[in-house]
Structure formats: C-alpha cells, structure tokens
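Dear colleagues,

As part of the handover before I leave the project, I'm documenting each prediction I ran so the next person doesn't have to rerun anything. This entry is a single chain, and its sequence is reproduced below.
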Amino acid sequence: MQVQIDYKKGQVLQALRYHFISKREIKLMIIFVNVFALLAAFLFVYKKVTPLAFLISSFVWLMIMLAFWWLLPAMIYRRSATFKGHFDVLLQENHFSIGNERGNKTWAWREFSEIMETPNFFHLYFSPRSFFLLPKDAFRNSDEVHEARTLLKSKIPVKK
C-alpha cells in the first residue's frame, strides 16, 4: 500500500501532545503537580499558607501545564523539517519505506519497537524518544486505514 503524506500543523501538535502524555514519567509529574496545586488551594482556603505562596504554586502549575501542552510540541514542530515536507510511504509485508525528492529510507518491521494509535495518526516508535508519525488522512478511505491498522498491528507490538 502506498500513500502520500503532507502533515497538518494542528494535527501534528496534537499528536506530539499524545506522545508526551503517554510517557509514564510525564503522567506521574502531571499528577504530582495537580495534587500539589489542589493541596495549595486547600491550605489557602483554610488560611494555612499565605496568598503569595498560593500564587507562586498556581504559577508553577500553570507554567508546567503550558510547557507540556503548548511549548514542547511547538518547539519540536519548529525544529523538525520532517513535518514540513512531502513524503511517499510504502507499507509492504516485509518493510516500511519512506521517500521524497532528497532520498528514501527503508526499515524492516522488526526495527520498530511499538505502535500507538491516536485519532489522527499511527505513531511508529523506533525507541521511546524516536518515532515516525503516519497520518490517517493520507489514506483514501476508512477501509485503507483499517487495512493499514491491521498490517501495522500484525508487524509491530502495540504500546501499552
């Protein structure tokens, strides 16, 4: 199956958010920061901390949430030329190929460590920090998306 990929900025940013939120350490940090913010609010209501301490803790919460939701995805999007290019992708029984006017690259399915599916993308991971985004809207219809999903899940372990 061959598809042509052009990335849409909004969808890529959302996919990068899914990537970050799927990481265990980030999930734990967000939980910790939210519990900290709730504790600070509780202590402020019962006058156990000063307004300044509550304001500072609220500011820290806001900065961390902004960093994970907007700053990190935007920085990665800007730095990566991949998301601004046009690619031809070939999904075959034994390998995955990608190419454009500058060249091409082929990977055997065993080189991918796991796959994660989100509303707009298949995330094909090489390692926990290195992955390729395959947009679902590159496929002509839902039957092709299902066919790609079946092939990908048969070749790459699903992310837990």
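The first strand starts at residue 2 and ends at 6. The beta strands are 2-6, 86-91, 95-100, 103-108, 114-117, 121-127, 130-135.

All the best with the project,
I.
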